[in-house]
Amino acid sequence: MSTRFRMAITALAGMVSILVAAPATAMPTAAQSPDPRLTVTAVTLGRTAVAVSGLNRVSVPVTVKAGYNSDDPIYANTLLNVFLQRTGGIGAVPLMVAGHLTRTAGTLKNGTWTGTVDVPSTANGTFHVFGVLAGETLDGSDGSSTTETLFNGPNIAVTGLHQPKLGVSVIPRVVPFGSGFQVKAAIYDSTTGKPYSSRILLQIANEHLCIEYDAGSKYTDAAGILFASFPAAAADYVTCVRVRGKFFDTLGTTFVVRRPGIVSAVPSKTSAKVGTIVPVNGSVRGAPAGCAVVLQRLYAGTQWRGVSTGIVRSSGRLTVNAQPPYVGNVSYRVSLPTCNNYQAGVSKTFVIRGI
């Protein structure tokens, strides 16, 4: 996975969600290196500072002096893309892209490329030009392992006013297994707390459409609210809400829906000598692998206390050990504490008789 693709994921997933943050997933990486044919000698920005309000974007000219060392005609119209990363301030956008700059002077091997970076208010802070990439595809979806050619370029200071903010909720709040769900997204002015005076394009998408492709946007109502419905199968994947831009999002959030903690557990024996270890086997629906579970014993008929622990395996199965401490009926249950997007849950109570 290329550097720019990782940063594209960060740019979306790093935007704060009011729901459960999607857990990070390790992805294999291929060998990566800058394009040896690209040499960058200068990058200039048309402005050193800019103020942007609301959902507007301000176009800032970008000029690149570079050379692309190829005699192949297929590269004659090579495009360049300039990457700027946040180095200061607080805002929803961590990465900006001046995309698809075209050659407007000189030759392919010694030319000038020009274009713009469209700066949103959510870029509030300081950004620094750190690299240039040749080509049309920016997200690595073409399978390329070519990374940016690093270049220590200029800075731009962005003052964001009346920045947009997203409020997102899922209906129902905890999604049962086998059920579909709705996402309600609201966009509003973070300064006034009120909706903007116009309908706004939002994108609510699921799974790979959150990163790889443009899933299409729809207009909110006059109050800045948009609903989207998803089938039951979508609940197992990341969902996102985005305010799309041409080369990077103005605003966005990703989340996985909350799931109920449904636990089952059965002792391997219903009676055992006092002090004997009795394995208790069970499962958690949805298989939240790596989540801890606790075997609890009922004390004095009123209070549950943990006596052993286990981990949910990738199959969803679990094993904990009971050890009846006295002669007579001992009540147990298995508890799943809240873990990632899984809510707390307990199994039915079961009894092991100490003999």
Task: Please name the defining characteristics of this protein.
355 residues; mainly beta; nine-stranded mixed beta sheet; six-stranded mixed beta sheet; 3% helix; disordered N terminus
What characteristic shape results from the CA principal axes? Answer: elongated
Number of separate strands: 27
What value does the average pLDDT take?
Answer: 90
Separation, N- and C-terminal Cα atoms: 59 Å
Order of helices and strands: HEEEEEEEEEEEEEEEEEEEEEEEEEEE
Low-confidence stretches: 1-31
Radius of gyration: 27 Å
Strand content: over 45%
Portion in helices: under 10%
Largest sheet: 9 strands, mixed
Structural class: mainly beta
Secondary structure tally, helices: 1
Walk me through what this model shows.
This protein has 355 residues and is mostly beta strands. It is built from one helix and 27 strands. The chain has one helix at residues 3-13, and strands at 33-34, 38-45, 49-53, 57-68, 80-88, 95-106, 111-120, 125-134, 146-147, 149-150, 155-161, 164-171, 181-189, 201-206, 218-219, 225-230, 239-243, 251-255, 263-267, 271-272, 278-284, 292-299, 303-311, 317-322, 328-336, 345-346, 350-354. Strands 2, 3, 4, 5, 6, 7, 8, 10 and 11 form a nine-stranded mixed sheet that branches. Strands 20, 22, 23, 25, 26 and 27 form a six-stranded mixed sheet that branches. It has a four-stranded antiparallel sheet with strand order 15-14-17-18, covered by helices on one side. The longest helix has 11 residues, at 3-13. The chain starts with a helix and ends with a strand.
